[in-house]
Amino acid sequence: TYTGEEGKTNSELLDEFQNDYHKLLVKLSNLYPNVPIFLIYGVMQETLNYKNMHELFMKEKDHFNLYEAFLEGDVKGVATHPSKASHQEIASKLIKMIEEIIHE
Hints:
By secondary structure, this protein is mainly α. The protein has a domain at 34-102. It has helices spanning 10-31, 50-60, 84-102, and strands spanning 37-41, 66-70. β1 (37-41), α2 and β2 form a beta-alpha-beta unit. The protein is flat.
């Protein structure tokens, strides 16, 4: 299917996104070696991207200090934007994940 954006297919746009994300991971890893990088998704209920984000994580996890964080929050925000309570819930979950990594 076509998205209408520059006549590119969804597959082409996904490839571009994954290539750009890879470049970002390379840059972050070079700037901050050995620092964990979290691939966080789910917060804004972007359900069509869940599979793509997980595939991206699986593709990149062996090359970077990368951790997957699928976090949905309370889904009570406006236009899928997280509420204050969601931000607090997500922050608490991330703190636990970071503490687990630190104590490995």
